Amino acid sequence: MGDLLNLEYKQQIIIENSCYEVLSMLKFIEGSSYWIEYILKKENDGQMYYLDVEPIGKCALHKMVNEKYNIELEIHYNGKLYGLFQKGNAKIQTYFGYTDVSLNEQVEYYEYICGNNLFTIEKWKNQLEISEGKYINKNKIKIKKTNEDNFRI
Questions:
Q1: What is the DSSP string of 1-34?
Q2: Cα–chain-centroid distance for residue 64?
Q3: Are residues 91 and 108 in contact, defined by beta-carbon separation less than 8 angstroms?
Q4: Which of 6, 50, 53, 102 has its CA 20 to 30 Å from the CA of residue 141?
Q5: DSSP 3-state of 4
Q6: What angle do CA 51, 53, 55 make, to 5 degrees?
Q7: pTM score > 0.85 for this model?
């Protein structure tokens, strides 16, 4: 698990048989806890994804949604009903790569779940970022070594 918390710029990882490249990392802190969010580019179509990794081993893969949603207790999206699971305020402790955040920048977040699926709303200054995705078993994520033919779990 420690390796997933220490991915590097341009490093490649395999998630459920798709290859992604790490473009940036944000480390969020909230109270005494933290999590890492990587911005990834999917190799086969160039789409941007986010991989959230918590030290306890919880991982989630999600991508941006172009629709607008209000912060509610429940969200209807893509035929599913998501319930508010957690919300909070965090700040950026450190980052690298392509990103438009600054150190100590604050974010208000809302995480909704429906089974293994998640829907998130992040409120940054005057901008909302909305994404949807799912929780991923950390065993389904492989980190590419420097030797192109080998991967480690």
A1: -GGGGG--TT-EEEETTEEEEEEEEEEEEETTEE
A2: 10
A3: no
A4: 102
A5: helix
A6: 175
A7: yes
